[in-house]
Amino acid sequence: MRRYWKLIYKKSLASPFIVWIIAGTIIPILSIAYYGLTDRNGAFTFENIYAIFDKMHLQALWLSIVLAFISTVICFLISYPLALMLRSSKLGKKGLMLFIFILPMWMNFLLRTMAWQVLLEKNGVINSILSTIGLPPQEIINTPAAIVLGMVYDFLPFMILPIYNVLSKIDGQIIEAAYDLGANFKDVLLKVYLPLSIPGIASGITMVFVPSLTTFVISNILGGGKIYLIGNIIEQEFTVSSNWNLGAGLSLVMMVFILISMVFMEKFDKTGEDSFI
Amino acid sequence: MKRVAKITYIVLVILFLYLPIIALVVLSFNESKSMSVFTGFSLKWYEEMFSNRMIIKAIGNTFTIAITASITATIIGTLAAVGLGGMKAKQQNLLLGFNNVPLLNADIVTGISLLLTFLFFGISLNWGTVYLAHVTFCIPYVILSVRPRINKSSTLLYEAALDLGASKKYAFYKIVLPELRPGIVSGFLLAFTMSVDDFVITHFTRGAGINTISTLIYSQVKVGIRPSLFALSTIIFIMVLLVLIGVNILTDNKRKKLIY
Questions:
Q1: Which residues in chain A are contacts of B128 at CB distance < 8 A?
Q2: Number of domains in chain B
Q3: Pick from A17, A28, A124: CB nearest B35
Q4: CATH code of the domain containing B135
């Protein structure tokens, strides 16, 4: 049987893919390292890396970490109860419910972010609703709060999905057993649901934290171009200042944080690659 | 009581997810340019949208890039998944590790890394560079959808077909390919959607003058939103809805695979 296996699955069929990995993944990562570690004349330097300690860059990095952290926590706090309810609900078909929560994810990311600009604007929908019910208008647009709101809105499904996935696989008999043995809801939550859903939580956290940390679109649209996250700084080095070396150096620093998040997820997520998609 | 609280919570989250989209849809039919008050029904923003050559061109670009890139990615990815099946576990894991890089990496890093590669080799940015970039991030999705099918597919049927006198080619097309087909289809759809939806990687690898829907929206949002963009949003939303419902009806019990 093994002989036939080899007959169908010829290794050589993967060669275009291997070429693509080299040209599309390995060389590009190396070129970030090359540009990041050289100056405009091609001489080796650490200056583009040290540039992160520039006050403006450090502030942007710190703000990115703080906002990404807050959005991740909010996403988790919204998603976990929701996933628990979906698991136990008899509200129609579960597939349909899940579909409802995933559908916005397929809508163009920029349009979704733009929608919040329209809602939050000074003369926007939310303020006109507030004024008709006699409340003072709020200025949320162009503040860090607006950016957090955008992050939560855009990335919430990435938290709901993996958590729902692990929760829906937990055997109902384990839960029943816990209740039979005298546990109350709090015990079941803390000692059964939470420990068993750690892989899903870990991948949810990474899938919200990394895009929030690295975004430049949300901060640009909802921050009015005045609030700089590390993504905005890097993007501007490429599109406005054309200082590729500095942009690449700062990207290398940012990649360290991405790597940390991935290691974090690897550590907890033993379910393997399938949980990503 | 508990049930009421539950339903309220679920409804609130649904409202949070859908209110912005509903607002765009409502405003797209608004008579005035106002972003808050609905003054009357009108289709003029749809007319403006369809007569805007930039929007039409961007839609064209988006779909030609998505179709060509996802077809290329589906071919390379399917071949790769089949090829990986013949490899030792160690080789497979190494290649799959690299395969995961574009999936896990931040879009901005992928975009920049490809941009720098193009710059390094003196390739000028144009339609082709966007196409190459899209193929790069689409391949992993195809491999991840096709691969589970390979591991499951039994070689016994193939063996039986050969014993019964089928040629290798015939057996491949009649036995192996049909087994892979659902994986290939969902891989293609996933790649296509990712390509249509991408902004960041396109932003870095496109040349001047080439716009997809996403990059056009980005540049318009910076200058000032016109309600014709709301019309565009409405059309996109309805299309996404129809496609997803269609796909789910077609592959009813494979729903999970397609959504993730």
A1: none
A2: 1
A3: A124
A4: 1.10.3720.10
From CA B251, how far away is CA A232, in angstroms rounded? 41
Interface of B with A in 88-117 (CB under 8 A): 95-96, 98-110, 112-117
Torsion of CA A64, A65, A70, A72, to 10 degrees: 100
How far apart, in whole angstroms, are the C-alpha atoms of residue A118 and residue A155?
19
Cβ neighbours of B103 in A, within 8 Å: 276-277
- Best mutation target among A10, A111, A159 (most B Cβ atoms within 10 Å) is A111
**Residues forming a β-bridge with A44:** A38
Please answer yes or no on whether B83 and A11 come within 8 Å at the CB atom.
Answer: yes
Domain that holds residue B80: 57-259
Cα-based distances in Å from A129 to A124, A186, B138: 9, 39, 42
Could you tell me which residue, B113 or A274, shows the higher pLDDT?
B113
Task: Please give the structure tokens belonging to residue A18.
Answer: 């291997």
- Inside any domain, residue B172: yes
CB B206 within 8 Å of CB B130: yes
Question: Predicted confidence band at B260 (pLDDT cuts at 50, 70, 90)?
Answer: very low
Mean pLDDT of A201-205: 92
Instruction: Give the helix, strand, coil percentages of chain A, each rounded to 5.
Output: 80, 0, 20
Residue of B nearest to A255 (CA): B109
Which of A108, A118, A213 is opposite residue B236, by nearest beta carbon?
A108
Task: Find all residues with CB under 8 Å of B121, minimum gap 6, and list them.
Answer: none
Do A110 and A122 meet the contact criterion of CB atoms below 8 Å apart? Answer: no
In the predicted structure, residue A74 carries a pLDDT above the cut 80: yes
Domain A55-231: give its CATH code: 1.10.3720.10
From chain B residues 138-157, the ones with a CB under 8 A of any chain A CB are: 139, 141, 143-145, 148, 150, 155-156
CB atoms within 10 A of CB A65: 16
Locate tokens 């942007």: which residue?
A60
Among B67, B24, B111, which Cα is nearest to A104's?
Answer: B24
How many CA atoms are closer than 13 Å to the CA of B14, on its beta-carbon side?
12
- Name the residue of chain A whose CA is nearest to B62's CA: A108
Name the token pair of B239: 């299309």
Is the CB of residue B85 less than 8 Å away from at least one CB of chain A?
yes
For residues B214 and B206, what is the distance between their CA atoms, to the nearest angstrom? 12
The 10s digit of each residue's pLDDT in B74-131 is 999 999 998 888 888 899 899 999 998 888 889 999 999 999 999 999 999 999 999 9
**C-alpha span between A19 and B236 (Å, rounded):** 35
User: Tell me: the pLDDT tens digits for A106-154?
Assistant: 888 899 999 999 899 887 888 888 888 888 888 888 999 999 999 999 9
> What whole-number distance in Å separates Cα of residue B121 and Cα of residue B129?
12
